[in-house]
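Entry type: protein chain
Record version: 2
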Amino acid sequence: MLDLKVTRTANAGVLLEMDGMTVLLDGVCKLLFPYLGTPGALRERLTENPPDVLAFTHKHEDHCDDSYVQLYRQKTLRSVYGPESLPFYEVGNGIEMLLRETRHIGKTDVPHVSYAIKGSATVWFMGDASPLSLKRMADLPRPDLLIVPFAYAITPSAWRMTKEIGAWKILLVHMPREEDDKDGLWDMVRSTVGEDASLVIPDMGQTYCF
């Protein structure tokens, strides 16, 4: 088992706990129906006990809540990482974060980065990057855990690219509740992925230990 705990805290965001450090990625966001916002109790917890590292992939409201970013900066006096950050930095306890500029799905004018977080385990966090952006990550350490939005699992070609990365587990986020799924994303994912044991789709607030 890896020394890695992952909690879904936002529409497409997670809290990573690894090697004694906490890293929040796109982890507080507003409700943009049908995509889920961070529940009040979770937001309060993340405000009272802020993570060691706060990072986001881009500034869309379903990935980054500016009011939480400002509170975090005031409370911790720490940097917040995003598209304007340096491409490599160490965050403590031997954990390294590597940034790669990637293209937002369907949008070329949105500054966007994806992350490789490397400690005792390696995690790739893609944000809203196009599945084709996986090719831009190819020179980085291969992930044990790959965290991606629904677009990586709704067509056979995208799922094939996703699986070719060779991650042990794939966490699929940016999914609405099934009862609010007007676009049929859940059915498309099931049709494409089948019973693949590598795929995990977490509920809001759900924690997995890997």
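Comment: The longest helix spans residues 66-76.
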